[in-house]
Specification:
heterodimer; A: about 260 residues; alpha+beta; twelve-stranded antiparallel beta sheet; 12 strands; B: mainly beta; twelve-stranded antiparallel beta barrel; 2 helices; about 60% strand
Chain lengths: ~260, ~280
Amino acid sequence: MILSAALLAGCLPEPREVPEAPSTAALIERFTAGADGVLDATSTTALVRGLLDDLVVIAAAVALVAEVDATTTELDQADDPGSGSNALTAEGAALGESRHALTSDAGAWAEVTHICPGVDGSLDRANGRLRLRTVLADFDEQIPAWGEADGCRVSGSEGPATIDADINSVLRRADSALYVEMTGDLRDAAAPLPFALALRSLDGAITLHRIVEGSGSFLIGVDRLEDGRGAVSVRDALGEWLCTYSQDPLRGTCRRGAEVLQWP
Amino acid sequence: MALTPRARGAFAALPLALALVTPAAAWYGDERPVTEYSAETLRAGEWRLYLLGQLEYGITDDWELGTMPIADLIGAINLATKYTVWRDDTFAVALSAGFITFDPSGWLEALPEVRTWIVPVAAQASWRPASADFSAHLGLHYTGLYTDGEIDLPDVYLNGVGKGGIINLIPTLEWQQSQSFAWVFQANISLAQRFVAQGQSRVETNDGRTTIDVYGDAELRTGVFEHANLTASAQWSWESLNLRLGLGYGSLEVPYAGVLVLGGSLVPEFNLSWRF
């Protein structure tokens, strides 16, 4: 038996280690558990001021999330036998299935490299890249993808931006919602501008998870977040508000049914 | 399908009937011993041709070479050799080794380049007590497997490598009924099987903007006695014709690779060869 073990194990390579996906449970829960803050004049001012201060970062992040969404969708389609990406299906999905067919030592994972679109959407490696990894065998209910944006140049609503960031994301198959958290720097300013954001993309609508110190967490619909006069939807612990504001001077009104909240 | 009592009787009587009609020159003895599961080899200058095409030749009384010419002709180069390293009136010990290698792209250009090597080695021992009507044989077999290949298309690249090692123990009991007929009971017991495969693919989508690299690993191990089969055969060994008919139960064996898979299968055995 000792000889057997030597003959079998000595000549064969050990399997490569399947990368371990970071947990996304806490990320998803930030959005599904609901906000715990309560909107009032004080928290509203802090919330909107913070949003406007981070407007460039948020706009860039939203553009980057669109790229993450596209990249993850490519993986999802590649894993779907009914899709047109048969080449990956044949190799990747089969390997993914082999994880179950053989032993727990087997597995398959993928690394996706996506060239960022830059300002004009051109295919130019100088626009940086988005690199995400995923474990194919985890695709049953969701597609986790994690990695980094490396000098990724995107064109946000506030203009072009270049992002370096660590990214952790998960696409839930049940509702096609993409949850993304990213921590990194915006390069374009004189000094790198650090940021940490958590967003959800659902049917093209972006929701931002935001914590106001001393007030709790809020979920912000940023579709109409604009410089100057704009609007955001704010979900707090009690329901959803629609807040309109003017930036200079910073003031506005939030409405939820008959309730009206004016600030400052 | 249920056999009628008459058919069952005829089926049971068939080995006996064949034994009775065998010619007097039929053979189980030192001059032309059974070689398939024993430590014996073909004698010097002796040829053996199997129905499925395998050809063996005795270089000396202790050393034989074999190949499958049809496989060689289509590019699956193969060679097997066996050498009886020690023999006395009762015992014999032999070592054997071989290889088969093939690449389907050599058969058809449209097929991918996938190289495969199968290398079996074995040690066999035989015990035939003087004046006994039975003999016992034990073979310890190791088979090494290796395959690799790649496909390189404009937007898709695939490559993979697989390796395996299989160790089988094959005990055989031959119970001689006449000079030309014997019952043969053979077990094939897997002591260990291990396979490791690694693959990688690269797919470019989105007009080249997105590249997806997929990496896969798989490892399969089976333990001692996890796979085995047992075959009972009737074997006729006439002057030149050898016929073995039997029925096995247990794991299926992948031909040439020595791999035992599944279980609970009934497998008929048919082996026909000529020695000349």
